[in-house]
Fold this protein.
Amino acid sequence: MTMSQLSAFPFFLCLISVLAATTSTTSPASPYVKIEPGDPETNVIISSPHGGRVKIEGGWTRQQGSLINGKCEFDPLIDGPKVPGKCKVITVPDHNTQELARIIRDTIHNRTGIQPHFVASDLHRSQLDPNRRRMEASQRFDVAEVAYDTFHGAIDNLSQEIEANVGAGIVYDIHGYVKYAADDWIMLGYNVRKEDLNSGVFDDHESSIKSMARRSDYTFTDILLDPHISLGGIMEGKGLKTCPSPSYPKPKMGILGGYYRGGHITREHGSLNGGNVDCVQIEHPPTMRGVDDIGVYGVEVGNAIVDWMDIHYNN
């Protein structure tokens, strides 16, 4: 698709009540983003950025960026050198993660009687990646830009509702990975660098759960690694191999040592830069996202989240 075609590609816009309630009155809402507000007393947002399957026929497909003066440029109007291995874009979706996110949400609802908020992108990752900055995410494709703004605007507005109604809360950003499949563990991303976890020296300074950590009477190390109060420890207690956790406090302990600390959503919508809504990116291995396992697995993850929140958020 040429850039002239891209700029002329029509918007597919839909203003329905549930979207209008959670997006700016001056911005159009996208029909390719699911926004399902939960109960007023919820302190949880479940987000699913990479599980969408919808491809807009004739729409722009995200391309490798250009490396210019050592910096990646993803604007398709900027023509620069394409360097192998640099400025890559991932266009493969996280298989079954939107379905997994719903199971986790339903489990939290069943356990607590309170329905969490839910935000999901339905666009295929080849056309939109909400877990990147806007230009890299959408590359000027107008439909993707509207979906991007709708997705992030919804999380912003729902976070404001949580702060107004409850005081503090958290976003669980649901992902799946393939690259480090041999490790076969859940990766909990608190925006703590892999190198810092491997060294054993880390604090909450750059964490996406800074708000909770600074309200807590527990040390940050215990919040991440204690067998009884950390999310990793609680997941391990339910038979879920997890990093970081008491058994695997360091990513280098894995077969491949793979670890994702969290992406744009974690940093943008957590408490790194203020506010009282935290964010944890949860990366799920491919073995737990198949049709035979996802139901039981998702319930266990949801139960672990409720147990962890009872310690740190619901008291």
